[in-house]
Amino acid sequence: MGLPHALILPYPAQGHVIPLLELSYFLMDDGFKITFVNTENNHKRLLANMSKKERNIKGINLVAVPDGLESEEDRKNLGRVNDGFLKKMPIFLEELIQRSNESGDDKITCMIIDVSMAWALEVAKKMGLRAAAFWPASAGILATMLSVPKLIENGVIDPEGTPKQQIFQLDADMPPMNSNNLVWTCFSDPELRRKLFNYMVKSIRAIEIAEYIICNSFKEIELPAFIHASNIIPVGPLLTGKRFGKPIGHFWPEDATCMAWLDEQPANSVIYVAFGSFTIFNQIQFQELALGLELSGRTFLWVVRPDLTSETSDAYPEGFRDRVMTKGRMVGWTPQQKVLAHPSIACFISHCGWNSTLEGMRNGVPFLCWPYFADQFLNQSYICDVWRTGLQMTANDSGIITREHIKLRVEELLGDKTMRARALELKEIANKSVIKGGSSFENLKSFADAMK
Ligand code: UDP
Question: What three-state secondary structure class fits 24?
């Protein structure tokens, strides 16, 4: 008999590709052959950031399918992107599976599909393949999405997805949420909201086809969500440490020089500042953050993605770069997992994307939370109110997080030893869950065995 062969399909975003590649490494070690499917655009970006040697990952075949959009279309427009998927990608995926199975190698035996690509579960069904859904974010958010019919019934949103009741709680033991921070309600354009809501409703229906729903979280950090939605299986955090030395699917080139720079810094001294792959700053807030870091008087490593601000010319405050030359380092993209594991890191100013949240947690790093969008607000509540491993940043009446506030919060966080102690406790709990005998490890192993 041939090897079990899983086709893995992430949503084409950085925070989805990384954990699914991590899952692929686990399955590969467990005897699976993997076909990892990116959109053509992202496939190119991934390969561009890998060495020749890295591209030949033994057991993992990186392949591409078109995303159904014209080459010049804006791939940041989620409404257009999702339309493109629904129209053409199912066919492209079917053709890929047929081609792969005709090639005579091990036939594809199952599909593991990102919940945000749940339409592909229909493809699995049509092709007679076993299928599972993978959710790269918190169980709390997935449980909320699966509860849309209940949210409508309880008057939290209307049948079109428009918020009716702002603050709601999915379960008495879960943090309160704001219906304006649901994935589709974050957008101001009503047409886009409607499209995203419909896409999500379709996805939720399609999930019913999945034999399993696995989630990159673990039961110890959000037990009420797992009790509320008992069909979600925790298998995370999917950071096995094996990724060190293996490509993890970055879209941007890593500035590896920052690691050598961190080596020169004393233990527990550097503020790491990063806002993931999507967040965009307006010019005023960008400059205020720069001045806040300067005012803190501390050393900092700040990820300034090439598209972090909409400003085309030099976005920094005048003279800033010269003034912080010895204290601060701004880079376009870091090997973030390695950065957060570095002993020099004292705290993490973060947008609270789920991957960043888990990565900080796995390294016992306390947070200053600066969420922008959707699930990042729930993640902030987990960090500040449930796990108590971080502090919230608060904007002033003009919606700006001021330099003085940044300095104050940094001092408060770094002066609070209990915060660090709790973060270290959580690190131990997280690490235990993913080693042999740990809750997530055993779930993942049972899942892999079942998919064989
Ligand atoms: N990341 C990185 N280098 C950076 C910034 C981010 O490697 O300079 C990675 C980070 O480690 C995480 C991912 O990009 O795995 C971002 O995912 P997250 O869920 O935190 O945020 P999103 O980009 O989805 O908003």
Answer: helix
**Residue where the block lists tokens 């967040």:** 279
The reported pLDDT for the residue numbered 178 is: 93
**Pair 129, 264 in one domain:** no
Task: State which ligand 1 atom lies nearest to the alpha carbon of 337.
Answer: 11
Q: Is residue 297 part of a domain?
A: yes
pLDDT at 2: 81
Q: What angle do CA 109, 111, 117 make, to 5 degrees?
A: 160
Sign of the dihedral defined by the CA atoms of residues 85, 87, 90, 96, in that order: negative
Evaluate whether 196 touches 184 at the Cβ level (below 8 Å).
Answer: yes
Q: Any idea which of 93-102, 231-240, 304-313, 363-372 has the lowest mean pLDDT?
A: 304-313
**Residue numbers of the domain that contains 267:** 254-431
pLDDT band at 248 (very low <50, low <70, confident <90, very high): confident
Residue 68 sits in the same domain as residue 207:
yes
pLDDT in tens, 249-292: 899 999 989 999 999 999 999 999 999 999 999 999 999 999 99
This prediction's pTM: 0.96
Q: What is the DSSP letter of 2?
A: -
If one residue of 78, 334, 339, 355 were mutated to test the ligand 1 pocket, choosing by the most ligand atoms within 8 A of its CB, it would be 355
Q: Retrieve residue 282's tokens.
A: 């307006």
Measuring CA to CA, which residue among 208, 60, 209 is closest to residue 124? Answer: 209
Among 135, 166, 317, smallest CA distance to 236 is for 135
Choosing from 21, 186, 336 the residue with most ligand 1 atoms within 8 A of its CB, the one to mutate for a pocket test is 336
In angstroms, the CA 298 to CA 21 distance is 35
